Amino acid sequence: MLLTLALVALPFLPPPLPPPVPPDISPPPALVIEASQSAAQWPVHSRQVLRRASIPAHPWAAGHRGIDIAAVADEPVRAVSAGRVHFAGEVAGRPAVSVDHGGGLRTTYTPVVAVVRPGQRVERGEVIGTVAAGHCPTVCLHLGLRDDERYYDPLTLFETPRMRLWPSGAGMGLAEGSAQPVR
What we know:
Blueprint: H1 2-9, E1 49-51, E2 67-70, E3 76-78, E4 83-91, E5 94-100, E6 106-110, E7 112-114, E8 121-122, E9 127-131, E10 140-146, E11 151-152
Antiparallel strand pairs: 1-2, 2-10, 3-9, 4-5, 4-8, 5-6, 6-10, 7-9, 10-11
Protein backbone atom coordinates (compact mmCIF):
# COMPACT_ATOMS: atom_id res chain seq x y z
CA MET A 1 0.00 0.00 0.00
CA LEU A 2 2.76 2.47 0.90
CA LEU A 3 4.69 1.56 -2.25
CA THR A 4 1.60 2.31 -4.36
CA LEU A 5 1.18 5.74 -2.69
CA ALA A 6 4.85 6.54 -3.23
CA LEU A 7 4.67 5.63 -6.92
CA VAL A 8 1.49 7.69 -7.39
CA ALA A 9 3.00 10.74 -5.60
CA LEU A 10 6.34 10.52 -7.43
CA PRO A 11 5.25 12.49 -10.54
CA PHE A 12 4.06 15.36 -8.32
CA LEU A 13 7.37 15.89 -6.54
CA PRO A 14 9.38 18.93 -7.66
CA PRO A 15 12.48 18.22 -9.73
CA PRO A 16 15.75 18.10 -7.80
CA LEU A 17 17.63 21.36 -7.44
CA PRO A 18 20.71 21.82 -9.63
CA PRO A 19 24.05 21.63 -7.81
CA PRO A 20 25.18 24.98 -6.35
CA VAL A 21 27.39 27.09 -8.56
CA PRO A 22 30.75 27.68 -6.90
CA PRO A 23 31.54 31.36 -6.33
CA ASP A 24 33.77 33.08 -8.85
CA ILE A 25 37.02 33.46 -6.95
CA SER A 26 38.89 35.13 -9.74
CA PRO A 27 41.01 38.03 -8.53
CA PRO A 28 39.71 41.55 -9.00
CA PRO A 29 41.13 43.82 -11.66
CA ALA A 30 44.34 45.32 -10.31
CA LEU A 31 44.40 48.75 -8.74
CA VAL A 32 47.05 51.02 -10.16
CA ILE A 33 49.64 51.26 -7.42
CA GLU A 34 52.92 53.12 -7.71
CA ALA A 35 55.97 50.90 -8.21
CA SER A 36 57.39 51.97 -4.83
CA GLN A 37 54.30 50.60 -3.05
CA SER A 38 53.88 46.87 -2.62
CA ALA A 39 50.16 46.84 -1.83
CA ALA A 40 47.18 49.03 -1.05
CA GLN A 41 47.06 51.22 2.05
CA TRP A 42 45.14 49.72 5.00
CA PRO A 43 42.22 52.09 5.66
CA VAL A 44 42.61 52.12 9.47
CA HIS A 45 45.52 51.55 11.84
CA SER A 46 44.46 48.01 12.80
CA ARG A 47 45.01 45.06 10.52
CA GLN A 48 42.88 42.76 12.64
CA VAL A 49 40.14 41.28 10.48
CA LEU A 50 37.11 40.54 12.67
CA ARG A 51 35.09 38.94 9.88
CA ARG A 52 36.29 37.76 6.49
CA ALA A 53 34.46 38.09 3.19
CA SER A 54 32.03 35.40 2.12
CA ILE A 55 31.23 36.41 -1.44
CA PRO A 56 28.07 34.64 -2.68
CA ALA A 57 27.87 32.93 -6.07
CA HIS A 58 24.91 35.10 -7.08
CA PRO A 59 24.26 38.82 -6.41
CA TRP A 60 20.97 38.08 -4.64
CA ALA A 61 22.35 35.33 -2.36
CA ALA A 62 23.26 35.77 1.29
CA GLY A 63 26.88 36.47 2.13
CA HIS A 64 29.32 38.99 3.56
CA ARG A 65 30.46 41.28 0.75
CA GLY A 66 33.61 42.61 2.37
CA ILE A 67 35.74 42.43 5.48
CA ASP A 68 35.27 43.92 8.95
CA ILE A 69 38.43 45.48 10.37
CA ALA A 70 38.80 46.33 14.08
CA ALA A 71 38.73 50.10 14.57
CA VAL A 72 38.24 52.85 17.13
CA ALA A 73 35.28 55.26 17.09
CA ASP A 74 36.14 58.51 15.30
CA GLU A 75 39.36 56.99 13.91
CA PRO A 76 40.41 58.47 10.55
CA VAL A 77 39.66 56.26 7.52
CA ARG A 78 42.09 56.44 4.59
CA ALA A 79 41.61 55.64 0.89
CA VAL A 80 43.27 52.30 0.06
CA SER A 81 44.39 53.70 -3.31
CA ALA A 82 44.03 56.88 -5.37
CA GLY A 83 40.70 57.54 -7.02
CA ARG A 84 37.66 59.76 -7.18
CA VAL A 85 34.89 59.80 -4.55
CA HIS A 86 31.89 58.06 -6.13
CA PHE A 87 29.51 58.43 -3.18
CA ALA A 88 29.50 60.06 0.26
CA GLY A 89 26.30 59.92 2.27
CA GLU A 90 23.95 57.39 3.86
CA VAL A 91 23.00 53.91 2.68
CA ALA A 92 20.21 52.21 4.63
CA GLY A 93 20.65 54.74 7.44
CA ARG A 94 24.41 54.20 7.77
CA PRO A 95 27.10 56.68 6.72
CA ALA A 96 29.20 55.42 3.81
CA VAL A 97 31.90 56.45 1.35
CA SER A 98 32.68 54.83 -2.00
CA VAL A 99 35.84 55.54 -4.03
CA ASP A 100 36.11 54.78 -7.75
CA HIS A 101 39.63 53.66 -8.69
CA GLY A 102 39.06 53.54 -12.45
CA GLY A 103 37.98 50.73 -14.71
CA GLY A 104 34.77 50.36 -12.69
CA LEU A 105 36.63 49.14 -9.57
CA ARG A 106 35.33 50.69 -6.33
CA THR A 107 36.07 50.37 -2.64
CA THR A 108 33.31 51.02 -0.12
CA TYR A 109 33.72 52.03 3.51
CA THR A 110 30.98 51.79 6.18
CA PRO A 111 30.08 53.12 8.68
CA VAL A 112 32.16 56.18 7.79
CA VAL A 113 31.23 59.83 8.31
CA ALA A 114 32.61 61.48 5.17
CA VAL A 115 34.99 64.43 5.08
CA VAL A 116 35.03 64.24 1.27
CA ARG A 117 32.39 64.95 -1.37
CA PRO A 118 31.37 63.10 -4.56
CA GLY A 119 33.66 63.88 -7.49
CA GLN A 120 36.60 64.83 -5.26
CA ARG A 121 39.98 63.32 -6.19
CA VAL A 122 41.68 61.44 -3.32
CA GLU A 123 45.18 60.05 -3.07
CA ARG A 124 46.29 56.75 -1.55
CA GLY A 125 46.28 57.19 2.24
CA GLU A 126 44.25 60.41 2.21
CA VAL A 127 41.64 60.68 4.98
CA ILE A 128 38.15 60.25 3.53
CA GLY A 129 36.18 60.16 6.81
CA THR A 130 35.97 58.83 10.35
CA VAL A 131 34.70 55.52 11.72
CA ALA A 132 31.22 55.61 13.25
CA ALA A 133 29.56 52.94 15.37
CA GLY A 134 26.87 50.68 14.03
CA HIS A 135 28.18 47.83 11.87
CA CYS A 136 29.72 45.35 14.33
CA PRO A 137 29.01 44.49 17.97
CA THR A 138 32.30 46.32 18.62
CA VAL A 139 33.49 49.27 16.56
CA CYS A 140 34.76 48.22 13.15
CA LEU A 141 35.17 49.36 9.57
CA HIS A 142 33.48 47.36 6.82
CA LEU A 143 35.56 47.49 3.64
CA GLY A 144 34.05 46.28 0.37
CA LEU A 145 35.54 45.86 -3.10
CA ARG A 146 33.51 45.57 -6.30
CA ASP A 147 33.42 46.32 -9.97
CA ASP A 148 30.37 46.98 -12.12
CA GLU A 149 29.33 43.31 -12.01
CA ARG A 150 30.47 41.58 -8.82
CA TYR A 151 32.08 41.77 -5.40
CA TYR A 152 35.60 40.63 -4.52
CA ASP A 153 37.47 39.83 -1.32
CA PRO A 154 39.15 43.11 -0.25
CA LEU A 155 41.99 41.20 1.41
CA THR A 156 43.39 40.66 -2.09
CA LEU A 157 44.23 44.39 -2.12
CA PHE A 158 46.76 43.97 0.67
CA GLU A 159 48.64 40.97 -0.67
CA THR A 160 52.06 41.64 -2.11
CA PRO A 161 52.19 40.25 -5.65
CA ARG A 162 54.68 37.40 -6.09
CA MET A 163 56.70 37.17 -9.25
CA ARG A 164 58.02 33.84 -10.48
CA LEU A 165 60.67 33.53 -13.15
CA TRP A 166 60.70 30.43 -15.30
CA PRO A 167 63.56 29.15 -17.41
CA SER A 168 62.90 29.70 -21.10
CA GLY A 169 59.90 27.52 -22.04
CA ALA A 170 59.78 25.71 -18.67
CA GLY A 171 56.36 25.03 -17.23
CA MET A 172 54.57 26.72 -20.12
CA GLY A 173 54.30 23.83 -22.55
CA LEU A 174 56.89 25.41 -24.84
CA ALA A 175 59.89 23.80 -26.45
CA GLU A 176 63.23 25.02 -25.10
CA GLY A 177 64.07 28.39 -26.67
CA SER A 178 60.86 28.42 -28.70
CA ALA A 179 57.64 30.35 -28.63
CA GLN A 180 55.84 27.37 -30.22
CA PRO A 181 53.88 24.90 -28.06
CA VAL A 182 55.29 21.41 -27.61
CA ARG A 183 53.30 18.91 -29.69
